[in-house]
Amino acid sequence: MPPSPSLPHELLDEAAALHRAGRFGEAEAKLRGLLADRPSDIGALQTLGAVLAAQNRYADAEQTFAAALALDPDAVDVLYNLGLLHQMAGRHDAAIECYGKVLSLAGPSPELFNNFGLALAQAGRAAEAAEAYQRAIAAAPGNVEPLLNLAKLRMGAGELIEPAFLLERALALRPELIEPRQTLAQLYALRGDIEAAVAQREEAIRRQPGRPELYRELILDLNFIDGDDGSRVAAACRDWHDRFARAPASPLFHDIDPDPDRQLRVGYVGGEQFRGHTLAAVALPLVEAHGDAVELTCYSDLRPEREDDITRRFQRRMHWRRTAGLSDESFAQAVADDRIDVLIDPVGFTGGSRLLALARRPAPLRISFPVMGTCGGSTIDYVLIDDGIAPGAALKHFFERALRVPFAYCNRPLSILPETGEPPSDRSGFITFGSFNVLPKISRRAITAWRLILEQVEHSRLLVKAGFPFRDPMVRDHFLRRLADEGVDTSRVVLKGWLPQQTDHLAVHNEVDIALDSFPYCGVTTTYEALMMGVPVVTLAGERVLGRYSAGILRAAGLADAIAEDDRDYSARAVALATDRARLRSLRRSLRDAVLNSLACDATRVASSIESALRSAWRAWCAQAPIG
Questions:
Q1: Residue 538: beta bridge partners?
Q2: Residue range 349-387, pLDDT digits in tens
Q3: 152 and 183: one domain?
């Protein structure tokens, strides 16, 4: 006996199930068959429109929804789906209009308010979007989606504190979510709560141990932790290496001529940094200073539309390989096919890391420069370093060999430097200390040292400039509470936020007499900038590489007496400098030229020494390279 034909509602249910299963072609065929017999079936038209939208066939979907609305202009489900379609197609105002009609016809619902908020946010109507999200949250407190969307909206407005509260609520409901946890860790770090950030990173790894990017973010945050001699960071790096970056049995590089004296093909991992970025101030002067002993190639993950005038300066001196969108495997193969001899990685574990490509051994020599820390195993052969930044003890937890040069960190300004005036204390009558480092670098120990300095220098002030986090008044209050908890008189503290122009940012140094470096993670670019503006920097030379860059820069600039060996010495040196007004005036006039004329800015000498170091490492490799 043949099966009886399905009823229309059964066919519609079957099509909806196929739609949910992602079997769009079968769903469409079933719906079109149903509509051939019942062309006025609004439910079938609505479902067909949704199936077409899921295939990004927006014009066909819109035509189908229009046919349904021609039959019933107040069909709520069709209007709602048409709103979703407009939203998917980027037509935010049309989506808002559809959602508004649904609200007037059917009343509120959590899902509707959430999508209404999304459309309003995408249309730039942030206040209305926030209200919609809040109504969605009130209607369904257990739904995490509006919590996450409101957090994203608040972050887009430069807020850090309220988004963290929202993400904490979302994770209490759905602790298995990883991306919100990573965002929460980022918010904690940006406002200076680095231990809380690390706890979130570690919890994310506990829940999803197979994701290498989670380890990378943890490693970056561990660098800020006080009380670690480098062993904790090194252990995390080793864990990352052993899980994801063990060297293959055979290297990927091929057809390498082991001639110890020929021109070297040197590649740079450019990431997204070879543009108007702090790293460019280090890499570009060296690239422009390299001689004929090396042939340079950059592997850049910059999209063409993000390239700028700085990028074009790089491009004039290097072969340029655009690698954005390439997998690590394809990236490594591109390097190997170019027969690169030495691959220099300035990116490390930071954003856009290509360490997993380097782990495939695409070049005979892989070198980390500038150095942040170890990579935990065989991914990198050498760290390019100097004795000031990395004496032997600073490398005790490194797995790589040291390739030493006289000075390993050259920086030249890439923008116009503002004029420097007299020390501000000449006008105000009191000393202003300053910090321009990011908040996670400012440890409790550093704050305690700053308190002692302010207490000993009568009427002195502290100016803290911490970039965009200080756009959020709640972050300012949070930071002032951190200072007050360590006994700092916050009435003597001035906070300054982000400025869009680099020259305006640098000009703030004209309000500071003496810069106080952060520790255990010291400044690097901020130290150069202060010295360029005639502001001396007091630093504490730490145990780890990332605590010693300022010390190396200060020695090169002739300010070795501003380098402290411990916390008490740090405070004492800052106080002593504050009492020597004549020296502050002299430094204001002379520091910029002293730095520019020092090894710290001598790209020609630094590039030459790097070439010599690379040649030495290359000859060592050639001596043991297989023949034939």
A1: 516
A2: 999 999 999 999 999 999 999 999 999 999 999 999 999
A3: no
Three-class secondary structure of residue 145 per DSSP = helix
On whether the CB atoms of residues 503 and 418 are closer than 8 A, the answer is yes
User: CA-CA distance, 588 to 577, in Å (whole number)?
Assistant: 13
Mean pLDDT along residues 66-80: 92
Q: Do 304 and 206 belong to one domain?
A: no
Tokens, residue 558: 């002739």
- Beta strand 514-516 with 493-496 is unpaired
Q: Which residues contact 338 (CB under 8 A, 6 or more apart)?
A: 265, 267, 297, 319, 321
Quick one: 223 and 270 in the same domain?
no
The pLDDT score that the predictor gives to residue 339 is 97
Q: Which helix (H) or strand (E) holds 432?
A: strand 432-435
pLDDT at 413 over 90: no
Within this chain, do residues 144 and 187 fall inside the same structural domain, yes or no? no
pLDDT value for 267: 98
Cis peptide before 500 (omega within 30 of 0): no
SS3 assignment, position 438: coil
455 belongs to a structural domain:
yes
Rounded CA-CA distance 498/310 in Å is 22
Looking at this protein, which amino acid is placed at residue 495? L
Residue type (1 letter), 226: D
Residues 6+ apart with CB under 8 A from 94: 83, 86
What pLDDT, in 10s, does the model give residues 586-619? 999 999 999 999 999 999 999 999 999 999 999 9
Give me the torsion for CA of 304, 309, 311, 313, rounded to 10°.
140
CATH number at residue 295: 3.40.50.11380
Backbone angles phi, psi at 548, to 5 degrees: -125, -5
Q: Report pLDDT for 518.
A: 98
Residue 4 has pLDDT above 80, yes or no: no
Are 522 and 542 within 8 A, CB to CB? yes
> Measuring CA to CA, which residue among 134, 140, 188 is closest to residue 164?
188
Please state the domain count of the chain.
4
Q: Which residues constitute the domain of residue 221?
A: 178-244
Residue carrying structure tokens 């108007």: 276
For residue 273, pLDDT beyond 60 = yes
Measure the CA–CA gap between 313 and 269, rounded to whole angstroms.
16
Where does the pLDDT of residue 2 fall: very low under 50, low under 70, confident under 90, or very high at 90 and above?
very low
Between CA 273 and CA 493 the distance in angstroms is: 34
- Alpha helices by DSSP H, listed for 223-266, are 231-244
Asked if the bond preceding 212 is cis, omega within 30° of 0, the reply is: no
CB of 155 within 8 A of CB of 182? no
Task: Find the largest Cα–Cα distance for the chain.
Answer: 108
Mean pLDDT for the chain overall: 94
**Paired residues of 553 in beta bridges:** none
Residue 494 confidence (pLDDT): 98
pLDDT digits (tens, 9 = 90+) for 275-308: 988 899 999 999 999 999 999 999 999 999 999 9
Whether residue 513 is contained in a domain is answered as yes
pLDDT for 3 equals 40
Burial class (CB in 10 A: 0-12, 13-18, 19+), 429: exposed
